[in-house]
Amino acid sequence: MTFAISGRPIGPSHPPYVIAELSANHNGSLERAFATIDAVSQCGADAVKLQTYTADTLTIDCAAPDFMIRGGLWDGYKLYDLYRWAETPFEWQRPLFEHGRKRGITVFSTPFDETAVDLLEDLGCPAYKIASFELVDLPLIRYAASTGKPMIMSTGLANETEIAEAVEAARGAGCRNLALLHCTSSYPAPIDQANLRQLPLLSRRFSTVGGLSDHTMGTTAAIAAVALGACLIEKHFTISRADKGPDSEFSLEPDELRRLCTEARDAWLALGKDGFSRPPAEAGSDVFRRSIYFVRDLPAGAIVGPDDIRRIRPGKGLAPKHFDALVGRRLKSAVMRGTATAWELFED
């Protein structure tokens, strides 16, 4: 399984790729969007992700019951009005991509229809993210995949069959660089429903690089996901939750994102490699192990008794498992109290 964005390899052998989702946290201000990209860069994340849609590409302006939101953060909103509030205008996309390049941070986006893909292709978008809610839009997936760009797909709401259909659509249309993100599509998502154990299953079942699109509060789930093999971590980001906005309630602030970047990479480093080889950091710690030492002065030819040796620290002598084998053996030469036992000190 291989995956890369803008030349940055992503996978189990590389540190987690941290994506900060701008989403609607620009609060309608292009200058705030620029400042958010600056903050993401300063926090050490790998990429900023935009969303490319308008209210008209997502839905229709309709107040029928089907188009009204009931419950949750956006209770009472008409879908159209929510998306008008939250959209990142198409005319902002080029300046945001250019600003990211100036800051040296990767910018890519989630297209929500074919016109968005066309725009993003014109901007040189290096990868595409398919949102959980669009995972069932197989024509959109095929259209994005036909660009040949790397694709990341979130799997919230989807059952195994729907995920398989989306993967088949992407690969069938030309995507050779695919990652799947485990996701709980609730805003915010309850920590006890993060269900992170599904993450390694997702990667194995579909032979893709795996990651987490995390909507829980804080960073605990994201760090735990790294221990389960997450190679990508996506979190919504805002300069300040106090400023409010469509997604601010479940978004990280700069101090939290900075901590996530550090701790996710530390968690990956802590995984190390399997097997029973001793790490270099243990060099020199043998002094704190037990081994067998002489605790009495003994002349050459003496027969070693059980009170002449002890299993003590440091660990420079023979291992404690040899204690019984040493009792009753004859010494080749005299030894002093505090001498580490060694086979060459004994007659055969």
Low-pLDDT residue intervals, each spanning 5 or more residues: none
Shape, principal axes of CA atoms: elongated
The secondary structure category is alpha/beta
The succession of helices and strands, N to C, reads EEEHEHHHEHEHEHEHEHEHEEH
Beta-strand residue fraction: 15-25%
Number of DSSP helical runs: 11
Written description of the protein model:
The chain is of the alpha/beta class and 348 residues long. It folds into two domains: 12-53 and 88-271, Aldolase class I (TIM Barrel, Alpha-Beta Barrel); 280-345, Antifreeze-like/N-acetylneuraminic acid synthase C-terminal domain (Type Iii Antifreeze Protein Isoform Hplc 12, Alpha-Beta Complex), CATH 3.90.1210. 31% of the residues lie in helices and 15% in strands. It contains eleven helices and twelve strands. The chain has helices at 30-43, 55-58, 79-86, 90-103, 114-122, 138-145, 160-172, 198-206, 220-227, 254-271, 323-326; strands at residues 4-5, 8-9, 17-21, 47-52, 106-111, 128-130, 151-154, 178-183, 209-214, 232-236, 291-294, 309-312. The strands form three sheets. Strands 5-4-3-10-9-8-7-6 form an eight-stranded parallel β-sheet. Strands 1-2 form a two-stranded antiparallel sheet. A two-stranded antiparallel sheet has the order 11-12. Helix 9 packs parallel to helix 10. The longest helix is centred in the C-terminal third of the chain and has 18 residues, at 254-271. The model has no long low-confidence stretch (mean pLDDT 96).
